[in-house]
Design goal:
Pfam families: Ni_hydr_CYTB (PF01292). With 209 residues, this protein is mostly helical. It has helices spanning 2-17, 22-48, 66-93, 96-101, 106-117, 131-155, 161-166, 170-197, 199-207. Helices cover 75% and strands 0% of the residues. The longest helix has 28 residues, at 66-93. The structure holds protoporphyrin IX containing FE. The site of protoporphyrin IX containing FE has 22 residues, from α2, α4, α6, α8 and α9.
Length: 209
């Protein structure tokens, strides 16, 4: 009986140590890689016909010129879309989104933001996201869906004409696509800084424990 109890305990403690399951880690890092390729090649594409009064320095763009950047963008697009779809399906089917990202309440977000700004936010239990993390992760997942859909709308405006119309036409879809990029870049800056400030969370996203 004791042997059973010990092995059960061992199994539970080994299980409890896994903070980020392998599928989340693999999909997360593939997504980060694909996002960087999409953003850098996207900036080069933007430079060929800027929406605003500025362009991106060629030192931070990918592709060298419009044609090259489009090839990078359309190649990485498949990686981002397939990887993102698997993450969405897994997140829904395994109940991860419900368990880890919900509920999000305004009171919770306000109190956790205050706690974070005054250095009182606890990082003791990495298996649970605080309300600010939940909001940021749920938000970036929604923006991730929007950037892919607006991208499809400007890539194939004839084939996906209803989608393009849903965004208010080709030009409006271009703006949506740009602002989603800006939101993702802003998220990434905050996200990477926070990950570096709490290195054990980064460790968990790399080795799982
Ligand atoms: C090099 C860049 C990145 C680093 C170092 C990084 C790091 C991390 C870490 C350490 C976590 C665990 C969270 C925690 O325990 O607090 C995490 C989770 C997460 N990251 Fe990133 N990340 C990067 C890029 C990205 C990008 C580009 C996106 C999306 C645009 C993203 C979206 C997410 C999401 C949605 C989660 C929650 C995943 C889940 O629990 O299902 N990350 N990231």
């Amino acid at each position: 009986m004791s042997a059973v109890t010990v092995s059960d305990e061992q199994a539970t403690s080994t299980k409890a140590k896994v903070i980020q399951p392998a599928w989340v880690r693999a999909l997360h890092w593939t997504n980060a890689f694909a996002m960087v390729l999409m953003i850098m090649s996207g900036w080069q594409i933007y430079n060929a016909s800027p929406l605003f009064g500025f362009t991106f320095s060629s030192s931070i763009t990918l592709g060298g010129w419009l044609g090259g950047a489009l090839l990078w963008h359309f190649a990485a697009m498949w990686l981002l879309m397939v990887n993102g779809l698997i993450y969405l399906v897994m997140g829904l089917v395994t109940g991860r989104f419900r368990k880890k990202l919900l509920p999000i309440t305004p009171e919770g977000v306000i109190s956790d933001t205050k706690a974070a700004l005054t250095g009182k936010l606890s990082h003791a239990d990495l298996t649970k996201y605080n309300q600010v993390q939940k909001l940021l992760y749920a938000g970036v997942i929604i923006v991730g869906i929007l950037i892919v859909l607006s991208g499809l709308a400007i890539w194939k405006p004839v084939q996906f004409q209803y989608l393009t119309a849903l965004f208010g036409g080709y030009d409006a879809a271009r703006y949506v696509h740009f602002f989603c990029m800006a939101a993702i870049v802003a998220f990434m800056v905050v996200h990477v800084v926070l990950a570096l400030l709490v290195p054990k969370s980064l460790r968990a996203m790399i080795i799982g424990r």
